[in-house]
Amino acid sequence: MKNNSFFIKLKLGICLLMLGGNLVGCGANKTSVSVEQSADTEEEIVIPILLRSEPDGVNSTYSDLITGFNKKYKGKYQLDVTLISETEEGYRTRLKELNAIDDLPVIITDAAFGSDFLALMEENNRYYGLYPLSDGMYSSAGMFYNVDIFKKCGIDTYPATWDEFLEDCEIIKSKGYTPISLHGGGDYWSALLIGTAYMCRDEAGVEFLNETLPESYDNKSFREMLKFVDTIYDYTYSDALNISHDESLSRFISGEAAMIPGGYWMVSQIEGAFFEKGFSSFCGGIMLVDKRMSAWGIVNQEDEKVMEGAKLFMEYRSIKTDLQEKSRSDIGQKYIAEFECHGKEFPNYQLQWQDRIIKEDFDVLFPKLIKNDITENDFINQLSIANNKY
């Protein structure tokens, strides 16, 4: 009995040893996997980025760009996207709010949308850097036009001078067409594209437009620009002050108007219009070209690895944009050809002038000017009063 008991205990001991060894082995394997996973987790740097969503609220215009980067650098860097369903203005307001509470993500798009915001970010050392696209075409602007309407009105080419421009507007209007597709509100930016281009017809206007955050807008060039903007509203829709840019663009695409100012960002929408389309620099061969308008920004962070990842993404964005196929549509090719041969450039007033004046005071004063409730002098005086408040 003792021998049987001994052998039973011996077998039980051996089994326990073997089981213990297996458990230890399993534990070692688990520890190894855990360490390996931990290493992977430590290597993958998360980079927060804020983007506007498409109308579906699910995707962003840059979804392919984000997916491509995350796939290429999987295990090293990962873009963590926060999507907000807002208009451009709503997105910009959100950036200001996040800046005020010091809660900006590492990467922001539309980083140079306004002179005040740009100056504040740089003054407070918030920007590590701005990264505009190398090709200024993506942030340039000129005039799209309906070649069919031009031909029906006996106009062979886009006008070379501003006097010819107004003469053509008269002809087009007399033939029953709307010469220019303009809108109201939204700081009247499309009309001001034309207005600031007009301002650049002489050196004084160019000099003023190149001035950053001017203390005064009381000068001959600005005054003449106001008068010209007032004039071109005689050649647009009767309800132009009450419609958005989206509506004015829709009307142009439907063939209701002869011209609309804008940039390359509008090509994809205009190329579907069922008429012969043209594109020209503004009169005098000048185009608005301001690379800062395509700038994305890296916001200063304490984590150097995150900053390195953000810079790598900016390089990736630039390369992908340079390599991406430019529009092969007829109007896309016309736009590219005009950009490549334009003679002169002028900066975007939105990055030169006081942002609060553009967003707040212009929205009040331009309707009054266009309705003839105030004169150019009244506009200047009221703008000067408002400017002194800031």
Primary descriptors:
single chain, 390 residues, alpha/beta, D-Maltodextrin-Binding Protein, domain 2, 6-stranded mixed β-sheet, 5-stranded mixed β-sheet, disordered N terminus
What does this structure look like?
The protein contains 15 helices and 11 strands. With 390 residues, it is of the alpha/beta class. It folds into 2 domains: 43-137 and 293-323, Periplasmic binding protein-like II (D-Maltodextrin-Binding Protein, domain 2); 140-289 and 328-387, D-Maltodextrin-Binding Protein, domain 2. Strand 1, helix 2 and strand 2 (77-84) form a beta-alpha-beta unit. The longest helix is centred in the N-terminal third of the chain and has 42 residues, at 2-43. The N and C termini lie far apart (104 Å). Residues 1-40 have low confidence and may be disordered.
